[in-house]
Write a structure and sequence with these properties.
About 65% of the residues lie in helices and about 10% in strands. With about 140 residues, the chain is mostly helical.
Length: about 140
């Protein structure tokens, strides 16, 4: 056994022996730096707000933001990039065939991601009206 493997075995044994103590220290550390991180992020946002707003208007920024929102809302997919491409190319509802409108135009025809709320798996793109009927 070389030194690297010996050290790895020692560290694993140490962790198993002191797991509760280590986990407790990690929790304390996270609590200690929580306020610092919050303040740092606030300052960072204020400092870079204009650049971030500009980037969010670019195609890459819009794509990143859209995919991030899908993940936050529970959408599960193997390949988000190809799904996003399909999302951009989709012009009509896959259920009723109506052309998508804009969010807030009062038509309920804006594009929605239909997915299972149990598994999170994507099903298809629908207008908001068809998506509400499916629930």
């Amino acid at each position: 056994m070389d030194k690297k493997e010996q050290k790895k075995a020692y560290m694993k044994a140490y962790y198993l022996k002191n797991k509760e103590k280590i986990v407790e220290k990690q929790k304390e550390y996270k609590e200690r730096i929580k306020e610092y991180q919050k303040e740092y992020m606030k300052e960072y946002y204020q400092k870079h707000k204009d650049k971030m707003k500009e980037w969010n208007k670019t195609p890459a920024g819009k794509k990143s933001s859209t995919i991030k929102n899908w993940k936050i809302r529970g959408l599960v997919c193997e390949d988000y990039d190809s799904l996003y491409d399909r999302y951009i190319e989709s012009k009509n509802c896959e259920e009723c065939g109506c052309e998508y409108g804009k969010f807030g135009d009062g038509s309920w025809s804006f594009r929605c991601m239909d997915h299972s709320h149990i598994t999170g798996l994507f099903r298809n793109f629908l207008c908001c009206g068809c998506n509400r009927k499916r629930r």
